[in-house]
Amino acid sequence: MIETNEKQPLLQVKNLDITFGTHKNKFHAVKNVSFDIYKGETFGLVGESGSGKTTIGRSIIRINPTSGGEILYKGEKINGKISKERDRELTRQIQMIFQDPMASLNERAKVDFIVSEGLYNLKEKFSSFQRKAKVGKALSDVGLLPEFASRFPHEFSGGQRQRIGIARALIMEPDFIIADEPISALDVSIRAQVLNLLSELQKKRGLTYLFIAHDLSVVRFISDRIAVIHKGELVELAETEKLFAHPLHPYTRALLSAIPLPDPIAEKNKKLLVYDPNMHNYSVDKPVWCEIESGHFILANNPEIEKYKKQLENS
Amino acid sequence: MEQEVILSVKNLHVKFDLRGKTLNAIRGISLDLYKNESLAIVGESGSGKSVLVKTFMGLLDANGKITDGQIIYEGKDLTKFKTEKEWLTVRGKKIAMVLQDPMTSLNPLKTIGYQICEAIELHQGLKGAEAKAQAAKILQDVGITEPEMRMKQYPHEFSGGMRQRVVIAIAVACKPKILICDEPTTALDVTIQAQILNLLKDLKVKYNLTTIYITHDLGVVANVADRIAVLYAGDIVEIGTCEEVFYNPRHPYTWALLSSLPQLGIKGENLYSIKGTPPNLFTDIKGDAFAPRNPHALKIDFVKRPPYFDVSPTHKARTWLLDPRAPKVEPPKILGKLREGVKNID
Amino acid sequence: MALGRKKISKVEENIDNIIKNIPEEELFGFADFDEKAAERAGYSNYSYWRSTFTVFLKNKTAVFLLILIGVILIFTFIQPLLPGQRSPTEIFNDANGVQIRNMAPNSEFWFGTNSIGQDLWSRVWSGTRTSLFIGFSVALSEAVIGILMGVLWGYVRKLDRLFTEIYNILDNIPQTVVLILFSYIMRPSVSTLIIAMCLTGWLNMARFIRNLVIIIRDRDYNLASRCLGTPTMRIIFRNLLPYLVSVIMLRMSLSIPMAIGNEVFLTYIGLGLPPSIPSLGNLINEGRILMTSEALRYQLFFPAIALSIVTISFYIIGNAFADASDPKNHV
Fold first, then answer.
1. Do the chains contact at B19 and C29, CB–CB below 8 Å?
2. Domain boundaries, chain C
3. Ranges A25-29, A155-159, B166-170, B296-300, most confident
4. Which fold would CATH assign to domain C69-85+120-329?
5. Other chains touching C, judged by 3 or more CB pairs under 8 Å
6. Mean pLDDT, all residues of chain C
């Protein structure tokens, strides 16, 4: 489905490093992360809280500064200083959906203003009539009634608010959307609505998603490829089904075993794997990010690579 | 499994005064809690699950009232308790609660040791060095290593999962009979969640507890529950053993909840999702509360509220579809995939 | 409770009757499923400002005092226009050409006269008007400057360090010293007083606003605005300030009595308005000297009551509004 070597990736992250704080209290949030995202795919980025996944998302959309490495969008560098022209262009092309529907909307503004906020920042000027029409269309695209534009956010439920947030991002007609845990704060029964909406929009508009989450079961349904991140470093990256069929890195296996299964018998007999970072011996042989089979990357040192290769042959 | 009932709720009605209007939060719930069982209460936000367990401990907000019904515990009716003094004999000592957010459940200005010892001194009557020793033992039980050192630390020095363990330790230190866990793992990551749930299962055996879990996540429920009660709009719509509810659900809401799990999704197709939003509880609801969102609704669902129909001695559901006169409706095919779809993850 | 149960069972009876009349097949037939209807359900019509006013109006004391202040304010403006009112600065002589000094309240001079024969009634109203004017002006100016500074201080990270240092320096200068110096240098007048009080008052407002801005500036909705490319000024006006309106109004309502109190204090130490411009400060000062003499106590009494009413009213109204604007009280 995705031709890896022929097409140029839409987004490339190369050796990204993000450090917070000053000399004494440096916190190395993201260490040497590299991955590519291709046009039209959904790329899942999974990790626990504090693993750095949100930080990566925010630095792609340029809210966080980076400390090293490059982020290339359509072949051009977008981190660091860029011209105002380029900045405005990128604002239109890359958009973000936030996690908490209760905190991501301005309570004191009408839905009309919230959704059309981005339009005011574009170079193109819209008349009031055009703007209202765009807002109405954006709202119906996400399954809300256009009459909702005159109401305030507090009048809506969590799922509806999240859809307003999606409408706000969509109205800019972006090519690339970063979804930062868009369903973690929603009730389990509402999650399906939002996931369906995101899939539909992708098919209709040819969007590319970076889907950040901490729950592998959700990511499996919506992602084409998944990267697993642990304490700022990518540990494994593969196509979804390959990752679920042959997880190699022990952290990935621990994450998989922790997924709650909605089947009482399976769940009660499940063995939970716990990941201990000290199980690796990286004192002599440093780990590298290598491609162990086509499209399947892993962070391991040489002895471990041998071990994994054998596992793949046997399975 | 022992069938001794230790807590019995009979026809409970709870109303709230909100901005001049009345909110019917709980609309006639009857429930029996058996000794040493693990009961899970599942429902969306706004279904009333937190309100229900708050009535067991007298923690309803000031604008809430129990307008009807009884809660019988150890021969006394908890709805008749008026003074704090009466509640102190039950709260903590007999019924303890673990809340959702470990960040705000602990006092940030006091050490962990102080907070646990506080609970021990209050409920077990030990003091000083004895209390500290007991606290260290409990911390060990909940999986915190080097308890003596950790006891001197403050909550902000612990991670989210560790904090939740401390909250559980405090709850268990009171040696309660019933432990209520209100969404204990919703704020935690998936890996930590699994560890905490296993911890709670171990503690239940070790301390001989009866546990109630409140959650909206069916995966969590499958792990820990013996029985499941499904709550919708302040009413129990289905209740049964864990296997019965997962493998033979009968209420359309349970069908909808189970069908919308991402684990059952087929890539490229839409996930099943429940249309619409929960009903407005300010109005009196005519008939079945789930009817407007129920694709299998019968006309009678909009007129008269269904009674409970027994599916088995331990399984009943409140839906007209179980009435002998109703047309036979099969549960969605996708639920058959429950066992296989799940196997693929292993 | 029993009545409720009877009512419920009656309704159930009615339903049963209705059901008896419908054939069984129809009752147990499928109902049409309307998706749009499902979407419309579940809508709350809570409005923040409406709830704030409702809660505020429940506080009868605050409402009463608000009306009282409103009436007093209006009266201070219409009083000179009423028939038969005297000028506050004119000195009145009796039939013999002697100044009518220290005359106790009677039917002609409702509040009596002061020690040089001026009508106390019109002086009190004129003084209240001046003091209220000073109070409102100071509150408004403090608010405008304080908000501007506070928002910049809190939102623009680069300015934080600089502003904090400036604040630390300015905060350590006692307000009284600034007031005295300024009043001493400039000629005493209403505008001098207002400017002098503004010089120091904005600092606390700025600090207060800055703390609140820091709390809300990193919330998701502000990040979302930045992602959409919204410029800083618009974020400040549409995202931050609307959240601060209620606290701004609270601070303003409390700074009005403070400003009036400061004016009284300055007059007391001799740096206030000249006697030709009556204000509550002047009047109280003049009355204070005569406090010991029982016959003349009324000259302190009337302006003191006016000051007390104004001060207490604003404090109570301000606090009632603060309580009402807290969403937790909107029940």
1. no
2. 69-85+120-329
3. B166-170
4. MetI-like fold (1.10.3720)
5. A, B
6. 81
